[in-house]
Design brief:
288 residues, six-stranded parallel beta sheet, three-stranded mixed beta sheet, 12 helices, 9 strands
């Protein structure tokens, strides 16, 4: 057993899967759930994701607390939690942006910031809520931790051990580097999918387009089924990096447009071939 008591703030897909995996691994004795939605906590308990629904004072008595919620709520939630943290309690998160989360935690936790271990599991689904949780979500997936120079080393070791108990591979990055990387490989694809679906949906004859859409459209736009609230917060929290990647993508699209307009078959073939080769190289490195 790695920790006796774990508290989950947000017992949905991410938090619930974390709890289920740790329970199966025997890494935790009891899981507490805390959140703003009592009905969701009831469902989480019925599904076995949590053992008890508690309030903030009781959650602060846990050995480790995971925040699995929209990143825009981080500071407010930590302010509620901070007065109740028992000595030695560890706080971590699963947010998709890290620089803003680190800044929020410094403000909200004060001297207890040393107990905060920023994290980001690179796993998920377009589904959300307690019913989407599954114990194998993190198996073979990467989890990035972005500890700071003043983060307690033993707190980092505990959080690392918890994620490894879920089957994840843990790596560390600087928060700014993390946000720059994931603006390109995660945040931009989600924005592109949302933009395409929204564009078609707002057309007068949008229903006709959707009627003929097939597997390619479905695969590309699957992630547009993700939580709008969560992705709103991510886009704003990682604003600078996301804008830089949007600009780079728009430039790439403009290059494509110019090549098509000029009927430049050689340029198109070069772009498509280069992209295909890069993707095939990447796929060979994946456990898929």
């Amino acid at each position: 057993m790695i920790v006796d008591t774990l508290a989950i703030v947000g017992a949905g897909l991410i938090g619930g899967s974390f709890a289920l995996a740790l329970k199966q691994a025997g890494a935790v004795r009891e899981v507490l759930g805390v959140g703003r939605n009592p009905a969701r906590l009831t469902v989480a308990r019925e599904l076995g994701l949590i053992d008890r629904a508690v309030d903030w004072p009781q959650a602060g008595e846990a050995d480790c607390i995971l925040l699995a919620l929209p990143v825009g709520e981080t500071e407010a939630v930590l302010r509620q939690l901070a007065p109740h943290l028992k000595p030695g309690a560890i706080v971590t998160d699963a947010g998709s942006t890290k620089a803003n989360v680190v800044a929020a935690a410094r403000v909200a936790l004060g001297e207890r910031f040393v107990d905060f271990v920023p994290g980001h599991p690179i796993a998920g689904s377009e589904q959300s809520g307690p019913g989407a949780a599954r114990a194998d979500l993190y198996r073979g997936k990467r989890v990035v931790l972005t500890p700071q120079a003043d983060t307690r080393a033993d707190a980092v070791a505990t959080v690392r051990a918890l994620w490894e108990a879920t089957g994840a591979q843990v790596e560390t990055l600087d928060p700014v580097q993390h946000d720059r990387i994931f603006a390109a490989v995660s945040h931009l694809p989600h924005l592109a999918a949302y933009a395409l679906v929204d564009d078609l949906a707002r057309r007068a004859d949008g229903d006709t387009f959707f009627r003929f859409a097939a597997s390619g459209f479905r695969d590309f736009t699957r992630i547009a089924g993700s939580s709008p609230e969560m992705w709103r917060d991510i886009a704003l929290a990682n604003r600078a990096a996301v804008l830089a990647e949007l600009d780079a993508y728009l430039e790439a699209l403009q290059t494509l447009r110019q090549s098509i307009a000029a009927e430049d078959a050689a340029a198109l073939l070069e772009i498509f071939s280069r992209a295909r080769a890069a993707r095939e190289h990447w796929m060979k490195t994946q456990d898929v």
